[in-house]
Specification:
Strands 1, 2, 3, 5, 7 and 8 form a six-stranded mixed sheet that branches. The chain is an alpha/beta fold and 461 residues long. It is built from eleven helices and 15 strands. The structure holds zinc ion. Zinc ion binds next to α9.
Length: 461
C-alpha cells in the first residue's frame, strides 16, 4: 500500500496540467481531496486505515452475496427515500445562465429524475451495457426527493439561494466556505436528515487551474477526515446541474449535460470510489490500486470521453469484458456512463442500513411530504418564490398547473401595493418580478386564487 501512495503523490502536478489542457473533461474533486489528504501524515494514516477496513468489508460482503446467490436468493433492496435540499450559491448572472430561478427549478427537477433513473436501473440507455457486464448490473432502489419541509417543519421546497456579489470567483474544491453562511456560503439543513447539495462554481484550487465538476463525502467521512460532520454533502458545479431538455441550455460541456455528475458524486457520498482506484489520480496507470469492490474489473487508468468496444485492462484481470468504462464511477462522459454493479449497490445499501454511514437519512421520508397544516389551496398550488432574499428580482414559479389564479400582488409591510399583475394565461407557470426600485425591506407576495390566497414574505436587500 505504502509504495502506491508515494506514486500517487508524485502525480499531483500532472492533474493540474491535465486540467489546463483538457478543461472540458470530467474532473471530480474527490481525487484532489485524496491527494491533499495524502500530504498530511495523520490524515493519510486515517485514510489508509479506512481503505483497509473498506476492502475487508467488501470482500466479506461479496462472499456473503455469492453464498446467497448460490442459494438462489439474490439481494433485492426495499426502497430508501432520501430528502434532498439544493443550495444555489451563485451570482445573479450565473442564475440567469441557468434560466433564472424558473430554470433552476426545472434543472433541479430534471436532475432528480436523472439520478432516480440511474440509481434504480431505469435509465433508458441501460440496454447499452455490453453482454459481458449485463449480469453485473445492480439496482440500488434509492429515491431522492426534494424536501417539502425545512428543518423547523415549515412547508418549504428544498431549494435555498445564496446570491453572491458579481465579483464572485468560485470556491476551490477544498474550500469548505460554501457550506458555511458566515464564510459566504449556505448552512446545511440538518444533514443527519437531509442530503445537502451545494450548487456553485468550483475551481480545482486557486485560480487559473481549471474547474472541477463536483466532489462529495458524507457526514461520517467528514467527521473522520475533517473533524466536522456538518461538511458532509455534495458540491456540484452549477453548469452540471440537471439533464439537458433543450439545446439552448448552458452546460459545462457536452460530456456533462445528462445529470450524471450528480450520479457519480452520489456514488462517492454512499462510499464508492473511482473505479480505476481509490487513490490513483486520473490519467495515471496503476494495476495495484483498486476501487475495493469485488465485481468491478481491474482497471488500469481512468477513461474519458466516450470509449467503445473492448478496452483492454490490467493483464491479469479475471474479467473478460475488459474495462468497465460505462460505470458511473469512471470519468467517461455523461452519455456513456450507464451502470452501477451489484457490488457497488451492495456497498451503498450497507451505508443506508442500520449502522451505515447515511442510515439516518433514510429515516425521514416525512420531510418529502407537505406538512399536514398546509392549506388545501397552498397544497394544490405548488409554488416557489425565489431567490429570497433577493435584490428585488425574483420569480413566482409553479411546479404544476394551478387552480384558477386571478392576480399576484406585491405589497410592503404597511400594506401598500408596489406591484400588481392580473393573470390572463392560466397555463403560465413562471412570473418574473422586478421591484429592485423599492427600498430594502420585507414585502408580501399575495397569490389570489378563486378558492383562497397564498401569502409569502420576501426580503429585498
Ligand atoms: Zn469522483
Amino acid at each position: 500500500m505504502k509504495k502506491l501512495f508515494v506514486t500517487a503523490l508524485l502525480a499531483g502536478s500532472m492533474i493540474l496540467w491535465k486540467n489546463g489542457v483538457h478543461a472540458q473533461e470530467r474532473i471530480c474533486g474527490n481525487e484532489l481531496l485524496v491527494q491533499e489528504t495524502m500530504q498530511d501524515p495523520d490524515a493519510k494514516a486515517r485514510l489508509e486505515a479506512y481503505f483497509e477496513q473498506y476492502d475487508a468489508e467488501n470482500k466479506a460482503m461479496a462472499d456473503q452475496s455469492a453464498r446467497a446467490a448460490s442459494k438462489g436468493t439474490g439481494t433485492e433492496y426495499g426502497k430508501a427515500v432520501i430528502p434532498v435540499v439544493f443550495h444555489i450559491v451563485a451570482t445573479q448572472a450565473q442564475i440567469d445562465q441557468l434560466g433564472g430561478t424558473a430554470g433552476v427549478v426545472e434543472r433541479v427537477n430534471s436532475q432528480l429524475v436523472a439520478v432516480n433513473a440511474d440509481f434504480n436501473g431505469n435509465n433508458l440507455d441501460i440496454t447499452n451495457v455490453p453482454p459481458a457486464f449485463k449480469s453485473l448490473v445492480g439496482k440500488a432502489n434509492i429515491e431522492f426527493v426534494l424536501a417539502k419541509r425545512d428543518p423547523l417543519g415549515k412547508a418549504k421546497w428544498g431549494i435555498v439561494y445564496e446570491i453572491k456579489d458579481p465579483g464572485f470567483a468560485g470556491f476551490a474544491a477544498h474550500d469548505y466556505s460554501v457550506k458555511r453562511k458566515v464564510q459566504g456560503g449556505s448552512d446545511p439543513w440538518d444533514n443527519t436528515k437531509y442530503l445537502n447539495i451545494w450548487v456553485t462554481l468550483i475551481k480545482a484550487s486557486g485560480s487559473g487551474q481549471g474547474q472541477v465538476l463536483g466532489y462529495a463525502f458524507n457526514n461520517v467521512y467528514a467527521q473522520q477526515q475533517y473533524g466536522d460532520p456538518a461538511l458532509g454533502g455534495v458540491v456540484l458545479h452549477y453548469l452540471a446541474l440537471g439533464k439537458r431538455t433543450n439545446i439552448m441550455q448552458a452546460f459545462y460541456s457536452q460530456n456533462a449535460d445528462q445529470g450524471r455528475t450528480l450520479t457519480h458524486e452520489l456514488g462517492h457520498y454512499f462510499n464508492l470510489w473511482h473505479i480505476w482506484g481509490k487513490s490513483t489520480p486520473s490519467g495515471q496507470k496503476s494495476c495495484t490500486d483498486d476501487d475495493g469492490i469485488q465485481d468491478t474489473p481491474e482497471q488500469e487508468e481512468s477513461n474519458t470521453q466516450c470509449p467503445s468496444g473492448f478496452q483492454a485492462n490490467c493483464a491479469n484481470a479475471p474479467n473478460p469484458g475488459g474495462e468497465m468504462y460505462m460505470n458511473y464511477m469512471d470519468y467517461s462522459g455523461d452519455e456513456c456512463i450507464i451502470m452501477f454493479t451489484q457490488g457497488q449497490v451492495d456497498r451503498m445499501r450497507t451505508e443506508t442500513a442500520p449502522g451505515g454511514q447515511v442510515y439516518s437519512l433514510t429515516q425521514h421520508p416525512e420531510l418529502t411530504l407537505w406538512p399536514t397544516d398546509v392549506s388545501a389551496v397552498e397544497y394544490n398550488n405548488k409554488v416557489e418564490i425565489g431567490p429570497n432574499p433577493s435584490s428585488g428580482r425574483f420569480n413566482v414559479y409553479f411546479y404544476d398547473k394551478y387552480d384558477h389564479l386571478d392576480r399576484i400582488i406585491v405589497s410592503n409591510s404597511f400594506g401598500q401595493v408596489v406591484k400588481q399583475l392580473e393573470v390572463t394565461d392560466q397555463e403560465q407557470l413562471n412570473y418574473n418580478f422586478d421591484i429592485s426600485n423599492v427600498a430594502a425591506g420585507m414585502y408580501i407576495v399575495q397569490l389570489h386564487f378563486e378558492n383562497g390566497i397564498i401569502a409569502r414574505k420576501v426580503v429585498v436587500q
